Fold this protein.
Amino acid sequence: MATEVGPTPVKSPASGGTPIHHGPKGVGEDNKILSQGKWATWLLAPTIIALAVVIVYPIISAIVMSFQKDAGLDPATGLFTAGGPAGIQNYVNWIAQQCATAGGGTVACPPGTLGAQFWSATQTTFIFTIITVTLETILGFWMAMIMARTFKGRSLVRAAVLVPWAIPTAVTAQLWLFIFDFQGIANKLFNTSILWTGSEWPARWAVIIADTWKTTPFMALLILAGLQMIPAEVYEAAKVDGATAWQRFRMITLPLVKPALMVAILFRTLDALRMFDLPYILTGGANNTTTLSILVINQIRQGFNSAAALSTITFIIIFLVAFIFVRFLGANVVEQSGATGKGKK
């Protein structure tokens, strides 16, 4: 009968003669892991290169352009100039709302010019973001709570909810432009005579209502995904313990759906901060509805390098907001993990 031959045991003096088996098994596993890591690198390389070309290169290019002067006619001499290094002057001009003069200096930008709209555009962008995200979160949570229940026709309701989100934004803007026309449905329905796109706050509310109608389904779907991850047994146990509907919502639903809710708010906030097409089509940026994205597009027609500086400022603002959200979510996960670990001990 054949006898299986294995690695020769060697006694370890430190362990009082306990046999230790030495063999090629560990070396083989290490080589296998290294081989898999090399294959993973080669497989990920095309994606990394594509992302670098599509994302990294435009960002670096915009930053480089932002430190250059715009080419054009010199106000002092009337001759064409090719630009040149500008340092941080483009950034200073936007933040301080300064415009170049014929003598080569700078003065406060006159009202109505693009340079005088930076802070008002920033304020408008954050007003749209705060109000729309708040309304979409509340309405989306309510819609998600309804869709999470079991009832007849639930699939049809979920499909119908997707319709506003599936419509292209340009089509949505044109649709609401007809609704908010002076002779449109909104004024006839409420028996009013409001110039929705002809004055400041009606125009702002027109943009907010249109954006809320379109994007609330997106929030509802993300929150619904979080609600469906909550086990039904948790609610049943709470009912047995005598918890009311409000207590179940406050003590179970909100804490457990919070990660999905924060991700939904993050995505929607970043999207709202770069809002362009909806206000551009609906109001043309008039009546203090010009966002930072609209201001960038308008500036491109007058100077690419100055527009690059403004787009870089916009990118920094969005990045800081995203960093705050991600930092907040990361701290929350760490705290939950620590609490879970202590509970298990």
Notes: The beta strands are 9-12, 18-21, 68-69, 72-73, 80-81, 84-85, 98-100, 106-108. Residues 13 and 19 are 9 Å apart (CA to CA). Confidence is low (pLDDT under 50) at residues 1-8, 10-15, 330-345.
